[in-house]
Amino acid sequence: MALEGPAERRDEGQQGGMANGNGVAPPPSRMAGRPLGAAAYSDRRLRLNPNTEHKPQDYTDVRGEYAPAVYSALERHLPPSLLEADRDVKLHFMRDILARYWPHGERNKVHRHKEYRQKIVHLYKPLHQELYSMHPSAFFLPTFLEAVRTNTEESIASIMTEPIAGVFSFAMLQPNFCDMLLEEVENFEKWVHAMKFKIMRPNTMNKYGAVLDDFGLEAMLNQFMEEFIAPISKVFYPEVGGGTLDSHHAFVVEYGKDRDVELGFHVDDSEVTLNVCLGKQFSGGELYFRGIRCENHVNSETQHEEMYDYSHVPGRAVLHRGRHRHGARPTSSGLRMNLLLWCRSSVFREMKKYQMGFSSWCGECQREKRERQIQCVKATKLVNYSLEHSYAVHLAANILLLASNTFLLYF
């Protein structure tokens, strides 16, 4: 079955972040001041599976581009010979690994964007100050909150529907939270226009909307991811880093008249994507899914069972892998605004380098694996048939020879 067209890659664009998305940049040169012990481990590979018995060291005092949680998560994947090394040695080894996703040119871009954020946060006066710190009971519906706090596979599954494999839908946000976030975004856009600031758009495909991290919501949304998305992702998406989410890119998109109308067929620069409709009144804008694919198969054909259209409902979330190909149909009337949280795992992105295939989650890799298994079974049957046929011929020849000898013996 043919695709709607080639799947694009929806990246952050000028915002920076994990520069090469799911790819890998060449390793950087040795950094000045690097501990001598770090060089001895430079050619070691990370463990594919984390050492759950190892207790990571404390990195809360470390300042830089990455949160302390990133180093704690990555340390469990270090080579066994490195686990007992000095913290500085481990820290520089991990920084070398992480720097492969953040080349020098991209670091400069990120530094400029960081200054842009600091300027906005310093000057912008929030409309709803209560949004800037986490208030779970005010933000989330009681059913969602209870399921996540119970934190069992059964409790989480109890609030979910899975209309198609890998896509989960559930009621999540309080109506008042949706209204306040919409008002905050509108207030920020008006302020940016009045101040004649340049507004950074969410990504390379959306031309309207705003990056929530840019005007002070980053800390709250990081807690949002760590406490309310990561427990779900750990259950449903462990094979794509759902249990090691350590960074995010959060934004609001706008669809309707004088806004983006639709969104082309694409994959996200994320391991797990949360998409929640905030409102307002609208028609159309369905989210269509067309199968999960790795980079090698991103433009392969869609199978009939992979096709699904999801209709947005304010306050209701849809959760899916970033590599689940999708797009948005035209919003035919009204204004639709959605909150998106791209959740990322630096550990998973490093682990991908060591994998030859992705049959645990890529639909096309799975299909190719099944085809190889079918061919293997056919080949085995053919060999067995050949052996059995050869044995039967050999047995018949022996019987004939025995019968001939018996005949000559008596006559």
Unreliable spans: 14-34
Strand content: 15-25%
CATH architecture of the domain at 125-354: Sandwich
CATH topology of the domain at 125-354: Jelly Rolls
CATH homologous superfamily grouping of the domain at 125-354: q2cbj1_9rhob like domain
Percent helix range: 25-40%
Question: How many beta strands in the DSSP annotation?
Answer: 13
What does this structure look like?
The structure is a single chain. A hairpin with a 2-residue loop joins strand 2 and strand 3. This protein has 11 helices and 13 strands. The protein has helices at residues 36-39, 68-75, 87-99, 104-123, 136-139, 142-150, 153-157, 175-195, 218-236, 346-351, 363-410; strands spanning 8-10, 161-164, 167-171, 209-211, 247-256, 263-268, 272-279, 282-284, 287-292, 307-310, 316-321, 324-328, 331-344. The longest helix is centred in the C-terminal third of the chain and has 48 residues, at 363-410. Strands 2, 3, 4, 5, 7, 8, 11 and 13 form an 8-stranded antiparallel beta sheet that branches. The chain has a 5-stranded mixed beta sheet with strand order 1-6-12-9-10, with no helix packed on it. Mean pLDDT is 84; it is low at 14-34. Among the domains are: 125-354, q2cbj1_9rhob like domain (Jelly Rolls, Sandwich); 362-411. It is α+β, with helices and mostly antiparallel strands and 411 residues long.
